């Protein structure tokens, strides 16, 4: 079974403003989120590509109201408890109630800055899947870990924490995002990305099942642009992209259409 190409846009907390000859990031706002969505709605998109965008939590409902049907919205995070006194958190049921069908989990910015560990990310993954929403599960190594040849160990231990809690992988998209490539302009080479994606797929085959290995989308994230997406998309084990900075620009459309 061919895996459907998948492109996610992680808006993070910002948008990019393009000026004459320069661009800079500012906080997202009602106006800028509507502009980006307008750009996506008006573009001719590859109908075979699944597209999911992840605006900041405050704008999830606005995004759902404006984004055209057939394209989905992800939260950038969700909590692992169903309800209660958890100030500042959002539950899976609240996402579902708002027609938000996906969540990102385990983004390195949350693992590093907010110190979320593998167990907590896995527990949130289980909560999301049990509640019926899809998970874009991010994993990836730091530069130091890559330079000491620990890439596969790091990525597979992040995945193992999920395996210990989750049986059904059908709603998981794995996003391999080397930390050194996120927001740095330093994209992994096609060979580096393909090598890790293939290693993740063989880990799935050995540790989960052949079917899960065959069917799970493994997407690449880290400085993906309209320039490098074509080559990356041709790799056997790269099934799409998670896009940060470029998801806020017209380049996002080229990336969605990179598999045409
Ligand atoms: C990300 O935030 O998931 C990401 C990949 O960012 P960027 O594309 O800007 O490197």
TrEMBL record:
**What GO annotations for molecular function exist for this entry?**
triose-phosphate isomerase activity
Q: Which Pfam families match?
A: TIM
Q: In which pathway does it act?
A: Carbohydrate biosynthesis; gluconeogenesis; Carbohydrate degradation; glycolysis; D-glyceraldehyde 3-phosphate from glycerone phosphate: step 1/1
**EC number(s) recorded for this UniProt protein:** 5.3.1.1
GO BP field:
gluconeogenesis; glyceraldehyde-3-phosphate biosynthetic process; glycerol catabolic process; glycolytic process
- Recorded catalytic activity of this chain's protein: D-glyceraldehyde 3-phosphate = dihydroxyacetone phosphate
Q: Which InterPro entries match?
A: Aldolase_TIM, TIM_sf, TrioseP_Isoase_bac/euk, Triosephosphate_isomerase, Triosephosphate_isomerase_AS
Q: Name one GO cellular component term.
A: cytosol
Lineage, top-rank taxon, reads Eukaryota
Q: Which UniProt keywords apply?
A: Gluconeogenesis, Glycolysis, Isomerase
Q: Which PANTHER family match?
A: TRIOSEPHOSPHATE ISOMERASE (PTHR21139)
Please describe the quaternary structure of this protein: Homodimer.
Looking up HAMAP family in the UniProt record yields: TIM_B
Report the family membership: Belongs to the triosephosphate isomerase family.
Protein name listed in UniProt = Triosephosphate isomerase
Q: What is the lineage of its organism?
A: Eukaryota, Fungi, Dikarya, Ascomycota, Pezizomycotina
């Amino acid at each position: 079974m061919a895996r459907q190409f998948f492109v996610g846009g992680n808006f993070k907390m910002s948008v990019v403003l393009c000026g004459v000859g320069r661009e800079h990031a500012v906080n997202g706002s009602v106006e800028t989120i509507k502009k980006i969505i307008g750009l996506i709605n008006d573009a001719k998109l590859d109908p075979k590509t699944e597209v999911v965008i992840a605006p900041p939590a405050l704008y999830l409902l606005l995004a759902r109201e404006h984004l055209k049907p057939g394209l989905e919205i992800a939260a950038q995070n969700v909590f692992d408890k169903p309800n209660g006194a958890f100030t500042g958190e959002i539950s899976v049921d609240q996402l579902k109630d708002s027609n938000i069908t996906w969540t990102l989990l385990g983004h390195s910015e949350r693992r590093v800055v907010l110190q979320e560990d593998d167990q907590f990310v896995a527990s949130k993954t289980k909560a999301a899947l049990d509640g019926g929403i899809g998970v874009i599960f991010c994993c990836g190594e730091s530069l130091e870990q890559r330079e000491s040849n620990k890439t596969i160990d790091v990525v597979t231990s992040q995945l193992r924490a999920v395996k210990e809690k989750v049986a059904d992988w059908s709603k998981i998209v794995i996003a391999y995002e080397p930390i050194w490539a996120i927001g740095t302009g330093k994209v992994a080479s096609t060979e580096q990305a393909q090598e890790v994606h293939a290693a993740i797929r063989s880990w799935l085959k050995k540790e989960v099942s052949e079917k899960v290995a065959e069917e799970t989308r493994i997407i690449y994230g880290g400085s993906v642009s309209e320039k490098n997406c074509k080559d990356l998309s041709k790799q056997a084990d790269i099934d799409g992209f998670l896009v940060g900075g470029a998801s806020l620009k017209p380049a996002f459309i080229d990336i969605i259409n990179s598999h045409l």
